[in-house]
Amino acid sequence: MRRICFLLRVRPDRLAEYRERHANVWPEMRQALRETGWGNYTLFLAEDGLLVGYLETDDFDAARAGMEAREVNARWQAEMAEFFVALDGSRPDEAMKPLDEVFHLD
């Protein structure tokens, strides 16, 4: 199982709405994430907009490709793109760059 951590930045003026949207993630989006291998997927949001994402998966490339093929993901990413800073034309899920793991206490 591979642990993945990534960072994104939410627009400071959209933090409350971002939190609200994630309190009500569509059931079909939750199901798609589970079915495509996004285990223990967690998002942490700081008051300044720093978003830390964490997930566990056997194959991150396959998990991303699985979501890419889901219509619900295209809808979700289109709605969520406006919440982020500096995506440079990418969708939020395309901007997720895994951080290097340098230590893990097992």
UniProtKB/TrEMBL annotation:
**Which terms does the UniProt entry file under GO BP?**
rhamnose catabolic process
Q: Which InterPro entries match?
A: Dimeric_a/b-barrel, Rham/fucose_mutarotase
Specify the superkingdom.
Answer: Bacteria
In its UniProt record, a GO molecular function of this protein is:
L-rhamnose mutarotase activity
Xref: Gene3D superfamilies: 3.30.70.100
* Keyword Isomerase applies: yes
What name goes with this protein?
L-rhamnose mutarotase
